[in-house]
Amino acid sequence: MRGLFAMIVILLVVLMMATTEAGKEKKVGKKKPKGTSDCGEWQWGACVPNAGDCGTGMREGTCKDQTKKLKCKVPCNWKKEFGADCKYKFGSWGECDTVTGVKNRSGTLKKALYNADCQQTISVSKPCPPKSVSKPKGKKGRGKEN
Prior knowledge:
The chain is of the alpha+beta class. Among the domains are: 42-78, Pleiotrophin/Midkine, N-terminal domain (Heparin-binding Growth Factor, Midkine, Chain A, Single Sheet); 82-128, no CATH class. The protein is built from 1 helix and 7 strands. The N and C termini lie far apart (100 Å).
């Protein structure tokens, strides 16, 4: 009885290994995903919004004699000076310059999307916040005064 049980277990293990190997062989001859080609490197243009200067739009790409269009989005808070396809890592804001009324910070290029032509470092500025007059703090509540 034990011999028959051992033979069945061995047979099941062999069948499982055979089906696993057959599955691996099928993956080797896989077709290319839809939309890919033998083209080398695609050159992508800027994202052009459908309306206005931000929001959803289209980006056109070319490679050899092929062209493609992709949906894209230009954030409405993007900085036009350096483009929406250039991603930067920024440092902290500097001190407020009392003469000009602005503060600055610089950023270094982190990533250029879609072959964008980006500057390695940039500097941005914004107006200083208005000075607020602090009110003297008094006692809270209606406690008895002694």
